[in-house]
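User: Can you write out an input/output pair for a complex, sequences first and structure second?

Assistant: Here is one pair. Inputs:
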Amino acid sequence: MNELIERISICVERGKVNKTSPYPKDLAGQDGADELTRQALDSNLGPDSILQACNVGMMKIGERFGRNEVFVPELLMAAKAMNAVMAHLKPFFKAGTVKAKGKFLLGTVAGDLHDIGKNLVSMVVEGNGWQVIDLGVDVKPGKFIEKIKENPDCIVGLSALLTTTMASMSKTVKEIKEQFPNIKIIVGGAPLSHKAAEQMGADGYAPDPQGAVEFLNEFIAA
Amino acid sequence: MTDYQWEILQKTINGEKINPLPVGFIIDCPWLPNWYGINILDYFSNDELWLKANLKAINDFPDIMFLPGFWSEFGMCTEPSAFGARCTFPANEFPHAHKVIHSNDDIESLSVPNPKTDGLLPFMLNRLKIAQPKIEDAGHKIRFSVSRGPLNIASYLMGSTEFLTTMMMDPDKAHMLMRKITDFLKDWHKLQIQTIPSIDGILMLDDIIGFMGEAEFCEFGLPYFKELYNADVSVKFLHNDAPCKVSAPFLPEMGVNLFNMGFEVTLNELKEITQNKVTMLGNIPPRDVLASGSVEEVKSVTSNLLNSLEDKSHVIMSCGGGMPPAVSSDNINAFIDAVKNNS
């Protein structure tokens, strides 16, 4: 692997956003994902290989997260570093040099302002080559429906942290399915389980961001 | 809680074996208004309905210690409102507070609220004062001062993602925010205790603890929780139904002696990692069993939990987390029966 590409991958895994970022302490003062991506593009390294570096970095941190070696703050920092890379790659997506695997429409359901899970999923899914349309938090069913109309080929992701907003999630699934029975919906969040997802009529449930990626990739492959 | 229930609670915390094991549940909105048959806004805005709903719960289930019991609350809006957060109260949904910190620079100018006058706090406390005689006429007393925990409040004030990344990118600012919130919470609990002399316990609810690794928890959580639980009360109660394996070993150091957890970790394991110094309130699955399960399923899962316990001291039977929406009276009674028959 090219040295720059390898370093980008490490920056993503370790959550090193840019040179001025104090995190992680042992990489203080060193170039981060931002600078290294710029250098890689200036050296004519392909955006595909840079994107692949992101995937590797996110996969490694995702695996460590799954083993409870790192926790949400570290995962958020990795996602932040990946975002710094993606900012450089956006023009290549737009130009079609790099093709997205599909569209993923994502939001935290109405009544819930928690964004940790949604943001993690958003960043990891994007790092895996999907175009993510992030609707934010406290998203009413009507907003999802409006955006599905604009993106009829999307897959929908609903997030909730609060037990109390599971009813809101259920309502959102129902309203989407009434209008778009073929749209696939995956749900996730602390109060959920496979059983709860099934009861509300969702097509999938993921306990973590990697699970969401697996669902999406499997669905596309099918 | 009645004097007898309070005595049982304290005996359990002191390690005495109680037979049958005590049963306790955290009840609040939305379960309570839904169960009582009123809409959520009425529950929050009408002191009389709030009291009637709570009185019906204690009368219908005299064998249960409701924790904290007569919880005067406005959902997630209670403490953030004092910091100036806009609060949204949909007619029959759970309310929520909006962010007040939009960049790290806002932390410096954030004022520490006065709990006597700011936000919804005077309403919360005044409701308790007005209701206190009727609560005591019913044979109960207000036992706990209650708040969300400092990490939870921080995440409401600035957004959970922003707060957690600020811990990593700008730790000084994260500490500044935690300092302000902790100072406020100390004042807030002190005011509750001074206003209602029967209070002899503190409950804080904080699930952001569950998202942190040990290093972050020890730096940004532990010292602040220690300060808060250093209050002069006998029951120091924490609710965190997010992952708890990282923080649970620190519960005794935090000063916590009563803990309500999620349901992923067994009570046996939690008792071991806390050296049996903390009383566990838990932990059958709240949604998949207590809310959605049949009466038979509730009985079976509850019996299995009881039979799995290697040591029945320091245990109050409950679900893993607070009472979730839509739990029926039948399922609650099935839970009580299973505890009575299998303790």
